[in-house]
Amino acid sequence: SIKGKYGKHFALYDDKLRGTLLRRQAITDGMETALAKGQFEVYLQPKYQIRDGRLAGAEALVRWNHPEWGLQPPGEFIPLFERNGFITKLDQYVWERVCALLQEWDRKGYPSINISVNVSRLDIYNTDLADVLTSLVRRYGLSPDRLHLEITESAYTDTSRQLIETLGTLRRLGFVIEMDDFGSGYSSLNMLAEMPIDVLKLDMKFIQTEITRPTGQGILRFIVDLARWMKLRVVAEGVETREQLERLQNDGCDYAQGYYFAKPMPVESFVSVLTVQDPPADMENSRSDDSA
Ligand code: C2E
Ligand code: MG
Ligand code: MG
Ligand code: MG
After folding, report:
1. What are the tens digits of pLDDT across the range 231-248?
2. Which H or E run contains 178?
3. On the chain, which terminus has fewer CB atoms closer than 10 Å, C or N?
4. How confident is the model at residue 77 (pLDDT cuts 50, 70, 90)?
5. pLDDT tier at 22 (50, 70, 90 boundaries)?
């Protein structure tokens, strides 16, 4: 019978599905307590200026240090938080943590860098972002351009007035706007022209697959030229090999971030990168294996 033939697979599938649902429920049930208990941890991934190999900044990436499951990357819980609205709270927590770090480092006389934080599209529609962010940087005595706001490309698909206006306001206030995951498939040149942004952050998949193909190389050059013409800076994300770095260098890309240099790392490890006396002659020196 069919049941006899496939029953085991159905059962397996059911178990897997049940497991997923239980886990999702546990994530939702645990999120508020986790925030209150400080289980969400900000990791930092260095970003380098390609021209001279100097540290240019970092990206803040959240992890959940879960008491039972261990350190969790955000791929599973962020999409859930975007559905239940908790992302707004978590993002504000991350931004505040980042501001506190920048203030502390300024006081200690460490090199002044900027940090990119992720902004969910929900943050744009649910809150008065300009208000929240302005009072935050003011509270920590920071100039707004120390915070780079990463908004993923797919958020721009509906080019609503509200999105354009909010980004325009933030930009006029001095925050730096980065379009994240550019080239992942949603944007049009028309949208790019309309959006008040400062930085294009090239999608990882683009870096890892396209630029080693002949057509992809043409496209990279085209994007960098276009960005220049639009007075945008270009960051490459997900750089893993020397070959990729050389391509980016040849084509005039401004900044690079990726495992080739360092993985996202805990704050204390990043402080060592930030405070190292001699800037690395070879950018490879700053490689780190503090894995996420
Ligand atoms: P994203 O903003 O595009 O961040 C880049 C992701 O690529 C990070 O994954 C980073 O660890 C990873 N990555 C960096 N370099 C390399 C590389 O060379 N190779 C590979 N394979 N991966 C690399 P992560 O930390 O797992 O974060 C995934 C996504 O979760 C982020 O993508 C971002 O969209 C979201 N996210 C992370 N933290 C936050 C946050 O605090 N708030 C919000 N709203 N979203 C966040
Ligand atoms: Mg992002
Ligand atoms: Mg990012
Ligand atoms: Mg990205």
Report:
1. 999 999 999 999 999 999
2. strand 176-182
3. N
4. very high
5. very high
Return the ligand number nearest the Cα of 62. 1
Q: Count of residues for the chain?
A: 292
Q: How far apart are CA 91 and CA 95, in angstroms?
A: 6
Taking the alpha carbons of 161, 147, 94, 134 in that order, is the dihedral positive or negative? negative
Which mutation among 84, 118, 119, 240 tests ligand 1's pocket best, with the greatest number of atoms within 8 A of CB? 118
Beta strands in 100-175 (DSSP E): 114-118, 147-152
Q: If we measure between CA atoms, which residue out of 187, 210, 198 comes closest to residue 235?
A: 198
Spatial CA neighbour of 56 closest among 199, 223, 268: 199
Tell me what the mean pLDDT of segment 256-264 comes to.
97
CA 59 / ligand 3 centre spacing (Å): 7
- 3-state secondary structure (DSSP) of residue 69: coil
pTM: 0.90
Residues with CB under 6 A from ligand 1: 45, 61-62, 73-75, 78, 87, 91, 94, 118, 120, 150, 152, 180-181, 204, 237-240, 257-259, 264, 292
